Amino acid sequence: MTDLKTLLLCSSAVVVSGVAAEAADLPTTKAAPIEYVRVCNAYGAGFFYIPGGDTCIRISGRARYDFLYQTSKVRTATGGDLTGYLGLLRLNLDARTQTDYGTLRAFLRLDLADRSGPFLTSGSRQREGLAFPGLGADAFNRTQTYVNADKAFIQFAGLTAGRAASFFDFYAHDFELIGGTAGSDTFSTNLLAYTASLGNGVTLSASMEDPVYRRFPVFGSGGAVGAFTAAGGFAGYSNGFNPFTPATYLAPIVVGPGNVAFVDVTQKSRLPDFIGVARIDQAWGSAQLSAAVHEINVGDASSSVAGVSTATPGLGISPTGRASSAYGWAVQGGLKVNLPFIAMGDTLYLQGAYGQGALSYTGISNYTAPYDALAAAPVGGGSFQQYYADAVLNPATGRLELSTTFSAVASLLHYWGPAWRSAFFGSYAEINYNTKGRNALGLLGFGFAPAGASAANALAFAFATSPVLRGNNQVVTGASLIWTPVKDLDIGVEGEYIRTALNSGVTPDISKNSLRYVNAQDAAQFRFRVQRDF
Q1: In terms of Cα–Cα distance, which of 272, 292, 311 is closest to 455?
Q2: What is the CA radius of gyration of the chain?
Q3: Closest CA to 521 of 495, 502, 496, 494
Q4: 336-342 long-range Cβ contacts below 8 angstroms, 24+ apart
Q5: Residue among 405, 374, 396 at smallest CA distance from 474
């Protein structure tokens, strides 16, 4: 038995030795090293190295739910809805690489939202081509899908190129949910800018920006289309009270006795907006001075059109050429002060702006109609409409006359405790038009054509009381309360009161079929939000 065990053990040893010898003769292959994602500490929390390179990237995002309630005066096709809803997705990508010239950065932000309700769906975004409306009987102007490449810019050695927020902006509704106060807030535009750092937090910037996202129309009456009639406008005070219909985009000019030409008042992209900014950032806060130049232009004159009302001069052959371009401008000063002696995180913003022919830079239209609209009311079925125009084409002189606007805003953020904060804010803004252009439109009868000679007195009175191109102002005040139970989660509510008034005089209340005149109209909006950032 012992001899048998010895024989087996010896045989096993021989076999194992042989296999090991053969294995040693085979070619060997090394396993590929596993490449782990490495944390990048050079640019703050959340960055990591993209495997295989020296670029650091941070991925972040946002999910948001909004519920809105706003007052309405009527239940008509243009009013009556009281509530709105929003669900929003935001995705951010921030990529940075260290080079011999400093940090090379690319930042991308995509916003996608589904919105319903008349004050969460946005006609402004549709006019920009950023939103797609519902077309059903109960969805038209009530549902909307919003898609925006909100940010897509490159920063390198002081250069910023791509899609970004306007360099002119300062406060830009930093503490607000609704964002209704007056003030410039062009959060997505195409630009090329350079920023020079002078040290101690002082920077100077020059920016060349896309003018399309800063335009408000040149006002034209559209000739006889939408002409004011005693039956349809003045005598009935109907909801159709709108002497001027801008849908034709034509403005009349008198070129000689009996000769009327019609000018295409859609603006052409010829020059960018030029913006200069001086800014300082210190431990106490920030201050900024901004200035902008904005070209306003119109197209060629076209042949006179038939059907102009009898109140206008006779027709003749139109000239060639166009009205000379005008140049709007705006200046803005802003101050941000940190108030840690009240509570950690407390901050006060103060800002003021003044402009001529540059409506969006002062932001008077921000609550009612932020982009490219000639007229709108701040509330469903409003008593009258505000009119917005960077310029008016004077039919008597053929010149562009610029509107004048100014705005002032204050906003205070206060922390009641680590998890609770409130914002208190208010703004005043005013717009005034050169009376020469408006008076010429009325005296020559453009857009104010009476139904007959017997309506002359009614016509004069209607012209005097029409809200068209009348100076107006808007006050926006509001407050919020926001709870942050855990980091990056906000649950809050905000309310705003909005009062829009004529600077002087009265106008017919188009929400009522009665002989009622008003000077002002009120609106209120409330918004509830749940938002998670990561």
Answers
A1: 311
A2: 32
A3: 502
A4: 336/170, 336/171, 336/285, 336/286, 336/287, 337/284, 337/285, 338/283, 338/284, 338/285, 342/414
A5: 405
Residue type, 164: A
Contacts of 12 (CB under 8 A, 6+ apart): none
* Residue 400 CB neighbours (<10 A): 26
Round to whole Å and give the CA distance between 352 and 374. Answer: 24
Length of the chain: 534
Listed in sequence order, the residues at least 6 apart from 156 whose beta carbon sits closer than 8 Å to its beta carbon are 99, 101, 102, 103, 104, 105
Report the sign of the C-alpha dihedral through residues 408, 413, 490, 48, in that order: positive
The DSSP code for 230 is I
What is d(CA 69, CA 82) in angstroms, rounded to the nearest whole number? 6
Task: Characterize the bridge pairing of strands 102-116 and 143-156.
Answer: antiparallel
Instruction: Name residue 489's beta-bridge partners.
Output: 532
Query: 318 CB contacts (<8 Å, ≥6 apart)?
Result: 255, 259, 260, 261, 262, 301, 302, 303, 304
In angstroms, the CA 414 to CA 179 distance is: 17
Per-residue pLDDT of the chain (534 residues; tens, 9 = 90+): 555 445 444 544 444 455 444 444 555 555 555 566 789 999 999 999 999 889 999 999 999 999 999 887 666 555 678 889 999 999 999 999 999 999 999 999 999 999 998 677 777 888 788 888 888 878 877 889 999 999 999 999 999 999 999 999 999 999 999 999 999 999 999 999 999 999 999 999 999 999 999 999 888 754 333 333 333 232 222 223 333 333 446 777 776 666 677 777 888 889 999 999 999 999 999 999 999 999 999 887 765 544 443 333 333 334 445 678 999 999 999 999 999 999 999 999 999 999 999 999 999 999 988 787 788 888 877 888 898 999 998 888 888 999 999 999 999 999 999 999 999 999 999 999 988 888 877 776 655 444 344 444 555 666 778 888 899 999 999 999 999 999 999 999 999 999 999 999 998 888 876 678 899 999 999 999 999 999
What is d(CA 388, CA 362) in angstroms, rounded to the nearest whole number?
12
Q: Is 404 helix (H, G, I), strand (E, B) or coil?
A: strand
Please check whether residue 47 is in contact with residue 85, taking contact to mean a CB–CB distance below 8 angstroms. Answer: no
Among residues 326, 348, 529, the alpha carbon closest in space to that of 423 is found at 348
